[in-house]
Amino acid sequence: MDPLNAIGLASNILSFIDFGAELVSKGLEIYKSTSGLTEEIRSTKDTVTELRRFVFKLQRPDNS
To answer: Most buried one in 1, 29, 47, 63, CB count within 10 A?
Structure first.
């Protein structure tokens, strides 16, 4: 195996290990949470809820 292929293989293995560790970490975070959501998703959900409230207030009333 030439050196460039060896470096590429090592890089791919490290990427796979990093992905697996991230997957396990997020899985544990979801498992331990009371809502079943990660903190990032819960924060995003709260932001979307607030934006919907603001948009609802900005809509013009129907003058029918």
So the answer is: 29
